[in-house]
Amino acid sequence: MKSYIDIVNEIKGLSKSRITNIRKGMLAGHMCRPLSPYLSAVFIKKEIRPNTVTLMMMGWGILGSILFAIPNVWCKIVGYICFYLWFTMDLCDGEVARVTKRFSKYGKEMDYMAHLICHPLMNIAMWITYLQADKYDVTMLACIFITIISVELVMRNLISFDSYLGNLNQSNMQQLLPNYCRYLINQSILYPNFILIFTLFVLGDYFYNFTFHTIYFLFLWTFYFLLVGLKAFFVRLAYYYKY
After folding, report:
1. Pick from 68, 128, 144, 217: most CB atoms within 10 A?
2. Residue-wise pLDDT tens digits, 100-159
3. Structural domain tally of the chain?
4. Containing domain of residue 166, as a range?
């Protein structure tokens, strides 16, 4: 039987073979991957199935959303830690599945459902935090956060759509790696990155009253996210319409 360290090294080796350059992975993944192999190895040693890890992921996301919405500094900090563990679990279920060779259509759908549940709750938790700060117009906040979660749900649906009908322009996906500036721009629209990175600035704005109010950055990001979502929708509409 493999030792704990052997399993950790195997997981790290699989990750290195899949992500050979920092620009090939998600920023949130780079943030959580230093921890995920060690937790995945524990799950494998305890014979915990990938689907169970996905349930843990969902649990951390829900708990983090509840805590982040509470107007208390420690609750929000612990809520952010839960967000970190949420995405770490998202990495872990894949790592456990690859090492144990336990793949299933049910597991894939379950992972998709976990994101559909957690993302809106995280969105609401951040919305509530801005309301608690009592610094910004309530109507503007409502428009921003309704737009964010609406676009995110559409983007999740497009991802699912592509997985069933085949990846769009698969040949174009094998192009050269983007430069670091384009990589960061591309990464900015991925919701896990938004949760793990932008919430840190939200905490700073909420507790320390930053000179640069984060709501202005959030407004620009939302506008860009909306444009990207519209482009993705119409590109797929044009591509699949002929079928």
Report:
1. 68
2. 988 887 878 888 899 999 999 999 999 999 999 888 899 999 999 999 999 999 988 887
3. 1
4. 4-241
